TrEMBL record:
It is found in: Cell outer membrane. Residues 442-897 form the Outer membrane protein beta-barrel domain. Residues 395-421 are annotated as: Disordered. Residues 405-421 have a biased composition (Polar residues). This is Collagen-binding protein. Its main location: membrane. Keywords: Cell outer membrane, Collagen, Membrane.
Length: 907
């Protein structure tokens, strides 16, 4: 194999003791073997309980042995080529005994400081001009997948900071894929406390796995960036991509600018906000806080879901600074993006009925253009050592244009056609929103005693105008229904929330918190449908059957009493939340109103026990009461889909859910080994579910509280460790399974649905940027979709996926690579078609210039031209298979240039 070879291994042994009292054995002393020429870490171990250690030297080149122990001076020894070496007794001197004039220098690759693991970046080999992502891949205990997701010590990293601050938003990949690795001095890994805990001094036990990049001093002033351009083609059109990212640092001041344009599926670097805009039937939803959201089916602004062929333009700028010893901090960012997409899709579905089945075919074409502006600003003010104020504001403006045509046909189980519907819908809409918040905290004289005041608000407005043309044939009734209408809509929402919290320490380890919350939501929604006038030919005749004007207001009063216990080994939290929600709805068209009030109790419990510094077990319980929305109580009447009619239920009650989670986590730094097990269970009582009545192929969907308890159980586990340490080969094993059980009524008959998904994943990887690097994964799985109405027509099937990413580094700064992905979905009793898809992207790249900053890359995407859009899923008693257009085979030539004026980047 590629990693096999002959090595002249020798062993280095010794004993570590205290210099003043050799009887004191320094167990767990850190022993590191560094390559002498560049201080790269080769081997790492710790002394046993008697102070003895043994480390293997893999070959005969010179090495440096470093031994460290807290509060003792470091030991350094050059290891020259020789046979097995016994160093005997090594005596370390206490720091208090060392002379002030003695200065010990040297690099320690990995240092553990309390709960923080710190890596010296220069001790790990990374390809020249590599990014932070390349550096993270070679750090012990950290892994990065193809999407940029970072896992550290078995936990997902949610934040990546630069010198302790967020830079250019909250997407870690913006840092890891744009900041150069040679600018980094130290990489710190720790679990960051919540903002609440840091500001009040009361630890609530909430943690976020975080990586902080400490830049070199020389890298804190200057500029760096990257520009990339690519061009290519397939058989009928051209492909292009272009990116420019520019960053300027000057101490605490950071300025970033980026621009991106492409039609190869890369749509954006990131969007701070997660507001969704899609491009099909208009739908309205009102959340518990009274806010109203409108959406059309389609792509988000911040990612591409693989459907269609998008064209994108995205730009952004970011600024951050701090002054007066960081008592003032300012962060601001602006982003703008445009996405255009054309999608063609087809769908076949089977719906199980009590004594029969209903089959349908659907063909859809959609074309959409979506653009959005977004601004975010945050100002932190440290008024004094006890008082901190944070203010933030965000504003966005978006515009959407869409056109969608759809043809649907429905058949009974014998293949006889029941109905069809041909519809065309156009829509133009715009959205404006402003968010604001203020957070004031004041620590009082007694440690752990504090006051906190929060204020949050939002104002949003959405307007839209469009047209709908639809013709539905109901063959069993021998009738035709035609619609030709103009649609106009407008919604407004104003939401306000404030809370006051007081924390009080009860003992050294136990503290309590009392909070009062008030929130108010005021929203309105107007939808108007206009028929074409026979006399004037204008769309000016109001169709009252499909027009509506609603106001929906919510008021909440809530109290929250919580207790937190913290010790070195044990953390616990008990939260008691009592909430009173008042809902007031007005139907302005009919002059009717509806007032509801709900008093609910929502407790939560969490505890975590640290078995050791590297092993912990945790348990979490939550009970939530979920209020019915305006859509569920009184859905806004629409006729955009004549085959699916929605009916509300003003007698709905809140649904309840209980969720339980238990997890175990272990990590061994010496073996670079981790393990994680998680078991989750959720119960849903009085669940608000859609019941379905089907007559002549037309569905009437109504909401109701079900008396059956729905359950979801999921299990996830993984282990990872170095398999061949000398060759840097690592292995990971994952297993996960999910069982989901839920109910609804189909034609007044109870339908029970069970979904079971099981998968096992085995992966191997090597990343040293020399010779052959690889990442290979194998993932077999099995899905079971069962429905009680037609138990003989279930859709069970085997699923298999594997992937391989290979890179081979050749002389002359040349690299060849190959990325492969294979997917197989077996045929089922419902869908006789199998899916068998092999995606292969080979390529070659070469670096130029002394700094290797210029790179030319040529590749062929999907060289076998097998990429097809394909999904299968179960929705209650309905089984669905989709096909859609996507990006397949094309070739592309890319040229990229990394530039910098920073000294740290030129080392």
């Amino acid at each position: 194999m590629f990693f096999m070879g002959a090595y002249a291994q020798t062993k280095i042994t010794g004993e570590v003791v205290d210099e003043t009292d050799p009887k004191i054995k320094l167990s767990n002393a850190s022993v590191m073997l560094l390559r002498a020429q560049d201080s790269i870490l080769i081997q790492h171990t710790r002394a046993d309980r008697l102070g003895n250690f043994s480390v293997v030297r893999p070959d005969t080149i010179p090495y440096l042995l470093v031994i460290t122990y807290p509060k003792y001076g470091d030991f350094y020894k050059e290891i020259l080529p020789e046979n097995d070496l016994s160093l005997g007794t090594i005596q370390l001197s206490s720091v208090s005994q060392l002379l002030e004039e003695v200065i010990v220098t040297g690099k320690i690759p990995v240092v553990i400081k309390g709960d923080t693991t710190e890596y010296d970046a220069s001790s790990f080999a990374v390809e020249k001009n590599g990014k932070v992502e390349d550096l993270l891949k070679v750090l012990p205990g950290i892994s990065v997948d193809a999407s940029g997701k970072i896992t550290a010590q078995g936990k997902t990293v949610e934040k990546v900071l630069v010198d302790g601050e967020e830079f250019f938003g909250n997407d870690p990949t913006l840092v890891t894929r744009n900041v150069r690795s040679d600018m980094v001095d130290k990489v710190q890994l720790y679990e960051k406390k919540s903002e609440e805990a840091e500001r009040t001094g009361v630890d609530d036990g909430q943690r976020t796995q975080t990586i902080n990049l400490k830049l070199k001093e020389d890298a804190k002033k200057g500029m760096f960036g990257k520009t990339e351009a690519g061009s290519g083609a397939d058989t009928d059109r051209g492909f292009y991509t272009g990116t420019l990212a520019f960053n300027k640092f000057n101490g605490s001041q950071k300025i970033g600018v980026f621009g991106l344009t492409s039609n190869d599926g890369t749509v954006s670097l990131n969007w701070e906000d997660r507001d969704r805009y899609g491009f099909s039937d208009l739908s309205t939803d009102v959340s518990d806080d009274g806010s109203v959201s409108f959406s059309w089916r389609g792509d988000d602004m911040d990612y591409w879901n693989g459907r269609g062929r998008p064209r994108a333009l995205s730009t952004g700028a970011s600024f951050s600074d701090a002054w007066k010893e960081s008592s003032h901090k300012l962060n601001a960012s602006y982003k703008f993006g445009i996405i255009e997409n054309e999608e063609e899709s087809s769908r076949i579905s089977q719906e199980n009925l009590p004594n029969s089945v209903l089959n349908s075919n659907e063909e859809t074409y959609s074309k959409a253009k979506n653009q959005k502006h977004r601004f975010n600003g945050r100002y932190d003010l440290k008024i004094d050592s006890l008082t901190t104020l944070t203010m933030s504001v965000g504003a966005s403006k978006g515009d959407t244009e869409s056109k969608r045509t759809q043809a649907t046909s429905t058949y009974d189980g014998s293949g006889d056609q029941i109905n069809d519907n041909n519809a065309m819908q156009e829509m133009q809409s715009n959205n404006q929103s402003v968010d604001y918040s203020a957070y004031l905290t004041r620590k009082l004289k007694r440690e752990g005693r504090s006051l906190s005041l929060r204020i949050n608000g939002n104002h949003n407005k959405t307007t839209g105008d469009g047209w709908l043309q639809s013709t539905a044939n109901f063959f069993t009734l021998d009738s035709v229904s035609e619609i030709d209408q103009r649609k106009a809509m407008e919604s407004r929402g104003d939401n306000f929330r404030t809370s006051l919290s007081y924390t009080e320490p009860l003992t050294k380890r136990l503290n309590s918190s009392l909070q009062y919350e008030f929130s108010r939501g005021v929203s309105s929604s107007v939808n108007a449908s206009f028929n074409r006038s026979a006399a004037s030919g204008l769309y000016d005749e109001l169709d009252r059957a499909f027009s509506n004007d609603f106001d929906f207001n919510t008021t909440r009063h809530a109290t929250n009493l919580s207790f937190n216990y913290r010790s070195d080994r044990f953390d616990a939290n008990l939260t008691n939340n009592i909430r009173n929600d008042e809902l007031y709805q007005v139907n302005n068209d009919e002059g009717m109103d509806l007032s509801r009030s709900f008093l609910t109790y929502n407790p939560a419990l969490f505890f975590r026990y640290k078995i050791s510094k590297a092993n912990s077990i945790s348990f979490r319980f939550n009970r939530n009461n979920n209020l019915p929305s305006l859509t569920q109580i009184q859905p806004l009447r629409q006729n955009t889909d004549q085959l699916n009619i929605v009916v509300g239920n003003e007698n709905l009650r809140p649904s309840q859910s209980n969720s339980y989670a238990i997890s175990f986590n272990t990590y061994d730094m010496l073996k670079n080994q981790y393990g994680y097990i998680s078991l989750n269970w959720s119960q849903r009582f009085n669940n608000i579910q859609q019941n379905i009545m089907i007559e002549n192929g037309r569905r009437t969907l109504s909401f109701a509280n079900l008396d059956r308890v729905a359950n979801t159980v999921s299990f996830w586990s993984s282990i990872g460790r170095d398999l061949l340490k000398k060759q840097k080969v690592r292995g990971n094993l994952f297993f996960d399974g999910t069982y989901n059980n839920y109910f609804n009524y189909i034609n007044s008959v109870l339908s029970e649905n069970d979904n079971i998904d099981l998968s096992l994943s085995l992966s191997f990887s090597r990343s040293v940027k020399k010779g052959l690097d690889f990442s290979i994964g194998f993932t077999p799985g099995y899905s079971m979709l069962r429905n009680s109405l037609q138990p003989d027509l279930n859709s069970n099937g085997f699923v298999y996926r594997s992937n391989a990413n290979l890179e081979y580094f050749l002389p002359w700064k040349l690299k060849v690579y190959s990325n492969m992905d294979y997917l197989y979905q077996a045929p089922t009793s419902i869908f006789a078609e199998k899916l068998d898809r092999f995606l292969w992207q080979p390529g070659v790249s070469k670096k130029f210039l002394k700094s290797e900053s210029l790179n030319i890359n040529f590749f062929v995407n999907d060289v076998l031209n097998q990429n097809i859009g394909f999904t299968r899923q179960q929705r209650a008693s309905t089984l669905v298979q989709d096909r859609y257009n996507t990006i397949a085979r094309y070739f592309m030539l890319k040229i990229s240039w990394d530039f910098t004026s920073m000294k740290g980047g030129n080392e």
